[in-house]
Amino acid sequence: MTIKVCVFDAYGTLFDVSAAAREAASAPENSALVDTWPAIARDWRLKQLQYTWLRAVMNEHCDFWQVTQDGLDWAMAAAGLNDTRLRQVMLDLYWELSAYAEVPAMLRTLKDRGMATAILSNGSPAMLEAAVSSAGLGDVLDKLLSVETVGIFKPDARVYQLVPDAFGVTPDQVLFVSSNGWDAAGAAHFGFQTAWVNRVGEPMDALPWKPHHVLSDLTTIPDLAQ
After folding, report:
1. Domain range spanning residue 77?
2. Which residues are catalytic?
3. How confident is the model at residue 1 (pLDDT cuts 50, 70, 90)?
């Protein structure tokens, strides 16, 4: 089946989720982060995701900004930091995360070839709009689809259904791209063609559903979407 829509997860896929802690640590006044920021960035992301899964299982939804704050609080506590100023610095930077270097050209190539493009994310609409605007990607993305429309986080099937509903396509006409192995598995289970962007060489998740493609970055996505 011909791919008609190329859909991307946002955080960790298009946008570097480590950037907020890393950039905060680069400022001289934030010396407390110099040695701790890698662990904070790792734990922040892990807890952020764990809280989405737990809230989905317990049917206690909140928006992604809440779990983002909660995840940072856990990560800072684990690092032995209790600093409201540093907390606010990192939260502010999360609203303007850097896009990975290959992202603008890759999305431009897709648009130049006539491909429909979108983000499908746990992020709230305001968070997604801010990230896309900060990275200058607004003209190469057709839609920003948020789980807030259905009130539950990925990998619930209702989230993936937002794409066929938005574009009038069947699941097998969608190439879904994520840096999260569990997200690629969920999308494959739903029926999307999937690409897992495995930037750090993680092992494959032990799940019945596997991504159709495994990549080290996003450069070759236009070739897969032909």
Report:
1. 19-94
2. 9
3. low
